[in-house]
């Protein structure tokens, strides 16, 4: 005797719309759900572990830097973060150097992206705009970099940072260094 796994037609008609809704939710990713997903991804705030003291610029001063360490921290970056304020940023390190590409998905404020190699600025993407939904543009030079510093939009210009500016980023605490 064989058993049928089919549901009665009336029950199928009632459950089909529910299955469609649940299936859509299961297949959707937080990044593709728009504003609802933004509440699910809280912004990360990392400790200030490094600084970039500006030499040879009109402004001087030191930029205090958060430093992501895990893959998840790298992935979240400055997503959902309000403006950082003057002389604040995030430093993404790459060892070995690589052609780094960054996007602005779920970032809520424009950012300056400063690409660094061997202690010098090699490229700047000024005022990269937020991207609320995919697909998003990616930013970065084709050449390898060993770090990227993200600042609020306009900070690079305000601080006099240009291609060729020295970028001597140092750890605030030796224990923080890799």
How would you describe this protein?
The protein is an alpha+beta fold and 178 residues long. The protein folds into two domains: 9-39, no CATH class; 43-176, Jelly Rolls, CATH 2.60.120. Helix content is 20%, strand content 30%. It is globular.
What are the salient characteristics of this protein?
178 residues, alpha+beta, Jelly Rolls, seven-stranded mixed beta sheet, two-stranded antiparallel sheet, 4 helices
Counting DSSP H or I runs of 4 or more residues, the number of helices is 4
The total of beta strands comes to 9
Q: Assign the CATH superfamily of the largest domain.
A: Protein of unknown function DUF192
Uncertain spans, ≥5 residues at pLDDT below 50? 1-38
Helix content: 10-25%
Distance between the termini: 67 Å
Percentage of residues in DSSP E strands? 25-35%
- Indicate the radius of gyration in whole angstroms: 22 Å
Shape designation: globular
Task: Describe the main β-sheet briefly.
Answer: 7 strands, mixed
How are the strands of the largest sheet arranged?
Answer: 6-5-8-3-2-1-9
H/E element order: HHEEHEEEEEEHE
Q: Residue-averaged pLDDT, rounded?
A: 81
The CATH architecture classification of the largest domain is: Sandwich
What class do helices, strands and sheet pairing give?
alpha+beta
């Amino acid at each position: 005797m064989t058993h049928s796994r089919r549901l009665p037609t009336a029950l199928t008609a009632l459950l089909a719309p529910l299955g469609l809704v649940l299936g859509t939710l299961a297949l959707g990713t937080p990044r593709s759900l728009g504003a609802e997903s933004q509440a699910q991804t809280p912004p990360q705030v990392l400790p200030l572990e490094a600084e970039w003291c500006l030499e040879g610029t009109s402004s001087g001063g030191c930029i205090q830097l958060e430093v992501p360490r895990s893959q998840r921290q790298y992935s979240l970056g400055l997503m959902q973060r309000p403006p950082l304020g003057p002389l604040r940023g995030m430093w993404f390190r790459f060892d070995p150097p690589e052609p780094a590409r960054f996007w602005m998905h779920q970032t809520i404020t424009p950012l300056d992206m400063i690409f660094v190699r061997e202690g010098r600025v090699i490229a700047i993407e000024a005022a990269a705009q937020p991207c609320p939904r995919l697909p998003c543009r990616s930013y970065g030079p084709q050449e390898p970099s060993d770090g990227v510093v993200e600042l609020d939009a306009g900070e690079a210009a305000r601080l006099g940072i240009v291609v060729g500016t020295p970028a001597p980023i140092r750890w605030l605490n030796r224990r923080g260094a890799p």
